[in-house]
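Give me the 3D structure for Cysteine ABC transporter permease.
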Amino acid sequence: MYLSNIFTNPAMQERYMDILVSSFLPLVKGAFYYTIPLTLITFAIGLILAVITALMRLSSVKVLQVIARIYVSIIRGTPLLVQLFIIFFGLPSVGVTINPLFSAIIGFSLNMGAYNSEIIRAAILSIPKGQWEAAHSIGMTNLQALRKVILPQATRVSIPPLSNSFIGLIKDTSLASTITYTEMFRKAQEIAAQNYEFLLVYTEAAMIYWVICVGLSFVQDSVETRLERYVAK
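Predicted structure for Cysteine ABC transporter permease (233 residues):
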């Protein structure tokens, strides 16, 4: 019935087109002013946390290993939505109030840090032990070997899965709407609440997410192709 009305009723077609056109710019602004910056900030912070956590997991210090394992286990064992709710809605009950933006940054960064730490740890472990031995043979310390020999190689290994993680984060930021952060999906909710065309507006938002992710996928493919040529040489 809904689709038949669209195709047979000129007045409804005009109304739907007006809604699509009028909502497009606010949604795109929401994506470029809020969704993408939030993604970039949280991914960068999460990547720093991931490297630190991965190194803690690989450390010979048991306490650091335990702390890292507990952090990763808690974050990976609980839903991201629940983590955001605890930060934004739960912490005020103990006197800690954080605004929506910083709640989203904390939640997504912690989540990315835990998941990406496993990617980075696996990438470091994939480097042959002979690379460590070669670095030590020319007088490098463990830290120097890690920084100058191991991490550059591990970076090439980890880029494909980290790229997938980044694309996934673009979509996951829609969860920030549940803690009132005005990113793109929150904009879609506000627009749909005004015109009551939830299917139409949400589908338009979904298509914008899809276009962004497809564009990033092309960039990812290009980067991976360049890395393969570099490794082959």
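The mean pLDDT is 89. Let me know if you want a second pass.
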